[in-house]
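[audit] Reproducing an earlier prediction to check determinism. Same input, same settings, fresh worker. If the tokens differ from the archived copy the diff job will pick it up downstream; this log only records the rerun itself.
[audit] input (271 residues):
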Amino acid sequence: MSHQLLKGKRGIIFGALNPQSIAWQVAEKCHEAGATFTLTNAPIALRMGEINALAEKCNAEVIGADVTVDADLENLIDRSMEILGGKIDFILHSVGMSLNVRKGRAYTDLNYDFMHKTLDISAMSFHRLLQTCWKKDAISDWGSVVALTYIAAQRTFPDYNEMAEAKSLLESIARSFGYHYGKAKNVRVNTISQSPTMTTAGSGVKGFDAFFNYADEISPLGNAPAEACADYCVAMFSDLTRYVTQQNLFHDGGYSFTGVSQNVINTFGSK
């Protein structure tokens, strides 16, 4: 049941690919909560995904944008404000890609051209987005920007590869730009560190099933599903969280602060 927390708010949602995407779930929840928004993804992702069905359901327009190209982001922001009829109140940055992961390169044998691309797409794009909005004065006072991250920014997950560095940089950008945007416009910038989630991107990481199950066993509440993350994003976009900024917010059923669970003790204890 919708509480219309976002009634009258305008937004941009990056990264919806298919119904398994967290961004897809966020779009559906924002629509239910009364928001209007544009949807965006890389041109190749738009050809591969099912985003037009989501756009029709949410009465949203789709604008292709390569997040590594300044002109594409400028066009995205300009067209979104034109389509929506004013400044942007919320943005979801749900963007990440590693060619090293896709090509099966080990962390100890990275292709650095691939790594540069990973950092550009998965982290620098967040700064590029915020800087574009800053220069265009595109975000309303007390607006909210959220980027999705993962606990590999703080802990080692061997097969998460250089995406861990990308997420660390992403979180640092949220803190740094969050300071400047907060001082200037009361805009808040945060990251949400989500549980491992069965998305197209997540399932592409080697060993994903194993650490999905491990996290589920450790977390006192279990892994948070994509739909619950979408609800959290709606709360972060709403006026109920006006004084939350520069934070990395764990949305993982308690995994991040649990050392071990009884289930894991029972599994690995003396036999």
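[audit] rerun output stored. Observation attached for the diff report: DSSP finds ten helices and seven strands in the chain.
[audit] end
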